[in-house]
Prior knowledge:
Elements: H1 2-22, H2 33-41, H3 43-46, H4 51-58, H5 64-76, H6 82-98, H7 102-115, H8 119-134, H9 141-159, H10 164-177, H11 181-194, H12 199-211, H13 215-228, H14 232-244, H15 248-262, H16 265-278
Amino acid sequence: xxxxxxxxxxxxxxxxxxxxxxxxxxxxxxxxxxxxxxxxxxxxxxxxxxxxxxxxxxxxxxxxxxxxxxxxxxxxxxxxxxxxxxxxxxxxxxxxxxxxxxxxxxxxxxxxxxxxxxxxxxxxxxxxxxxxxxxxxxxxxxxxxxxxxxxxxxxxxxxxxxxxxxxxxxxxxxxxxxxxxxxxxxxxxxxxxxxxxxxxxxxxxxxxxxxxxxxxxxxxxxxxxxxxxxxxxxxxxxxxxxxxxxxxxxxxxxxxxxxxxxxxxxxxxxxxxxxxxxxx
Length: 280
């Protein structure tokens, strides 16, 4: 499952790389009036983004028998309480986890955490919401999922103030939300000071360095990520960072590493074109 997700992420990155490179970290520049008005206009829409709405989307294309099983559990939830409700929610979360559907999984764990407010439950909710918003470009839904991730991680951190996982998730969500990005980055920097080899914190800092066009810093972060856990996406980001600071030979080597790990035809074709351009 991890390898499949990795390939999807890298392919997705290729499509959106141009957009990514053109955007500053949300909140580092002042939003214009039009954007503020647009957010105001979508506030009503965001109120309808909940377990029911994301579940409807997630069910599309699923086996009919499985859809019925999930729907039956959901139908029983309104009339349940206490341990019965908790049991139903855990079954629901199990289905969404097996299906790799992070948005409904996040809302399911959020409801579980409301009934059983433990550190683990809030962290699972935050991680699921993060996986959901990181792989979603919907300008209405993604910000809502980011807000839910931030709230879940904050509750997890309140219960376990020393948790680097909760601190990393919270810092990343704060930056992506856009309200106070430097606060989030400061939290991520605290994490890597305490744990220099923290995979998630280094990955997030590398991505944010790319968005703010600090490619030299991005190189250092992605090199650290690769030392910890090599992946096609980390090599791809490293290659792109090298390319943007003019280190063509290093960029070519990194692109080749990404290509060899992903083993995806569309990615291979894209990288071959990139290598051809960089070799001229």
